[in-house]
Amino acid sequence: MITIPYWWLPVLLFAVWSLWAFAAVAELRAKEAREGVAKEQRGGVSVVPVLPLFPLGFWGAAALVDVWAAPWGTVVIGALHLLLALAMVFTLVRDLRYCLRRERT
To answer: Could you give the CA distance from residue 22 to residue 85 in angstroms, rounded to a whole number?
Structure first.
């Protein structure tokens, strides 16, 4: 099995949840554009409770699983977050394309 450096998982987790923040903003902008919300009335997205807590929580969960079944906590949490990253990239590109197409018309 491939040995993963100890710092790999927290970097991946924070990167994926940071990507989630961008995807959440893009999704909100696309939704507001579809609904025709005026620029003065557009809202925002708060990522403060999610961004520091979720990556740390998943890192802790992976560490707990690794105590009993190393390295499966790191492998499973890492793989699930890679899938989440793929989904976020897909939605981010979709929503940004919609917003850019909407601005041109």
So the answer is: 11
Asked if 11 contacts 58 with a C-beta cutoff of 8 angstroms, the reply is no
The amino acid sitting at 100 is L
Q: Which helix (H) or strand (E) holds 2?
A: none
Is residue 32 a contact partner of residue 39, using CB atoms and an 8 Å limit? no
Q: What is the pLDDT of residues 19-37, one digit of tens each?
A: 999 999 999 999 999 999 9
What is the pTM assigned to this prediction? 0.88
Nearest Cα to Cα of residue 96 among 26, 48, 42 = 26
The 10 Å Cβ neighbour count of residue 56 is: 14
